[in-house]
Amino acid sequence: MPPSLKKHNSLKRLLRPEVLKRLLAEAQEAVGATTAIAVCERDTVLPGAHASFVDAGGKEGDLTFPLHADGHPCGVLILRPAGHGKAEGVGIDAARFGRMLATALQEIIDREEARRAVAEETLEQYRESALLHKTTILFNQSLRLDDVSQALLRQCQNTEIHAEMGMVFGTGQADREWRMLSSFGPADECGLAAITASRLFREIVAGGKGEIINDLPSDIRWQDEVPQLQALICNPLKSPGHWAGGLILATRRPGQVFQAAHLKQVSTLGQVAATAMANAHHFEEVQGMLDALLQALTTAIDARDPCTSGHSHRVAKYAVALARLIGSDEDGALDIRFSEQEIKEIHYAAMLHDVGKIGVAEAVLTKSSRLPPERLEALCHRLAQWGAQANRDWQAMYVQLQAINKANVITDQDIALIEELANQKIGLGEVVFPVVHDDERQQLLIPRGNLNAAEWLEIKNHPAESYRILQHIPFPRDLERVRAIILQHHEKIDGSGYPNGVHGKEILPQSRILAIVDIYDALTAADRPYKRALSREKALSILQQEAAAGKIDAALTAFFSQNLQSIEEQGAAMGQIPSAR
After folding, report:
1. Is residue 481 very low, low, confident or very high in pLDDT (cuts 50, 70, 90)?
2. Spatial separation of the C-alpha atoms in residues 448 and 273, rounded to whole Å
3. Cβ atoms of 581 and 343 closer than 8 Å
4. Would you give the end-to-end CA distance of the chain in angstroms?
5. Is the predicted pLDDT of residue 172 greater than 70, yes or no?
6. Is the pLDDT of residue 333 over 50?
7. Which class is domain 11-116?
8. % helix, strand, coil for the chain, step of 5
9. Average pLDDT, the chain
10. What does the alpha-carbon distance between residue 517 and residue 505 come to, in Å, rounded to a whole number?
11. Cα–Cα distance between 389 and 363 in angstroms, integer?
């Protein structure tokens, strides 16, 4: 056989045995028994040859006609006439007949090559389509950029590329700084991330077309940014919008060669991954913007009342820490478990739980005494005038009134003083008026706190107002319970809460958590000048009393009390939470 024959070309694949046998039988019949015919591939005689061809070796006088596949010699047609160039008895020119037979065989080979090429192309398109379909589903299972990049690298590892290491990079429009998203193999210890500083990486990414470099040290664009690296595939991750990425598959193994088929696979994977990663990047940007808006809105809500500054942020941290701790409770005392998405829902609800206070009048929201300072001062002038007219010691009475004005609960002695002064009159000529006006009397006689019935009703309406305001925000499906959690956070287990008086199991577990931490922070907050912050022990005692009275969830309250130290530590890890004294 001629030494130039390529091993990868195979006549056995291109000439089906039954076709070759039939054709050679007819040719043999045409030339007669004195001329032997065979088709040989290297050292092999193919089926259908004359019986005299026991091996593929040529003899003197043989007529040989090369056969080609894919433009390369792949075998020969041999005619072995007994005479001198003519088949005896039939007068056929063996050389001419051989050329004609070789032409027929070549036509069969060419047609089979074309058929196989179409079949291979169709199969390749199917494989690519199947890979696109599979990876489209796989890469779009998550909207986290890290998850998508890890999925891309896993797919690259599942191919026949057999890269030693790999890394995915990404960059946004804001800073244009490349950051490593995911990696496999010894990429970190080899310092593969340094490749982003190379001219080679920058040019390939800018060009938008993947490349194979199998002899990296000899590439003029490479300045040994990653020592000992021998070969790599660099594929840009192109996507419309404001995100760009790059995929590197590399090796330090001498002699490992990446092939064009490997780059094609990587390009197919990268095509789908780039779109999924751009979507994830966009989602993360939107999520970041939403979180920033949430923080700004929460700060604005708390800022309306300087006395509750930071309340919503602290409640959110306590609530998230408590929800996470419940999920890690090995004893399983509480039959509640929250997914990470549900914990995120709790976080949003806690941050926004007081948004309805936007609709509460400033005077009511910031009210720190029964009477505002200017009204108390006016009462003082009237009291002094009355004292002068009645010859009474009004200063001691005024001191008591000041204490009543700031008191959380009033005594019978306080009530007696207010009623007495409300019945005393001051005369200025013909004008007579009481020392304590009727509206002042009503405010000073409030049994507990400093809000009258109308003001308290306005405050109690804030969960419903929060629900109404948040109806204008199109929360995604996985956050659709945020409004309901907020609406119920002041409901009580015994049905005595507000705004709807729901009770028992009708109250969401998330709302029960929010109720407990909301009360705890209100009791222990050190930033309320009109109310002394309670110690941790006193606050827990009040919570336990509320639980015993059927107001808040008893099991959750017990768990909160038992694990408060851990809850405060986890909350502090999310951001500073001042510990209760």
Report:
1. very high
2. 62
3. no
4. 97
5. no
6. yes
7. alpha beta
8. 55, 15, 35
9. 85
10. 19
11. 35
Q: Which two tokens stand for residue 120?
A: 């291979």
Domain 11-116 matches domain 143-286 at the CATH topology level: yes
Instruction: For residue 309, name the pLDDT band (cuts at 50, 70, 90).
Output: low
- Predicted structure pTM score: 0.61
Record the tokens describing residue 158, joined without a space: 């599942």
pLDDT of residue 318: 94
For 274-318, where are the E strands, in sequence order? none
| 542 Cβ contact list (under 8 Å, min separation 6) | 519, 523, 534
Pick the CATH number of 304-363+458-573 from 1.10.3210.10, 3.40.720.10, 3.60.20.10, 3.90.1150.10: 1.10.3210.10
Amino acid at 297: L
Beta strands in 395-470 (DSSP E): 425-428, 431-434
| Tokens standing for residue 567 | 């809850």
CATH number given to 143-286: 3.30.450.40
**pLDDT tens-place string over residues 362-374:** 777 778 889 988 9
Is the model more confident about 101 or about 459? 101
CA 211/CA 221 separation, integer angstroms: 13
Category of 315 on φ-ψ map: left (φ > 0), alpha (ψ -120 to 50) or beta: alpha
Question: Count of alpha carbons within 13 Å of 423, Cβ hemisphere only?
Answer: 6
Whole-Å CA distances, 386 to 145, 372, 383, 395, 421: 76, 21, 5, 11, 9
Distance of CA 102 to the CA centre of its chain: 64
Gap between the Cα atoms of 105 and 22, Å rounded: 12
Half-sphere exposure of 17 (CA within 13 A, CB side): 3
Neighbours of 121 (CB within 10 A): 10
174 pLDDT more than 70: no
pLDDT in tens, 507-561: 999 999 999 999 999 898 865 545 677 899 999 999 999 999 999 999 999 999 9
Q: Cα–Cα–Cα angle for 448, 353, 487, nearest 5°?
A: 85
For 416, the enclosing helix (H) or strand (E) is helix 412-422
> Could you report the per-residue pLDDT of 76-130, keeping only the tens digit for each?
999 998 754 444 444 578 889 999 999 999 999 999 888 888 877 776 666 666 6
Domain boundaries, the chain: 11-116, 143-286, 304-363+458-573, 373-450
CA–CA separation, 192 and 98 (whole Å):
61
Tokens of 96: 């001419």
Range with top average pLDDT, 32-36, 294-298, 305-309: 32-36
Residue 250, number of CB atoms within 10 A of its CB:
27
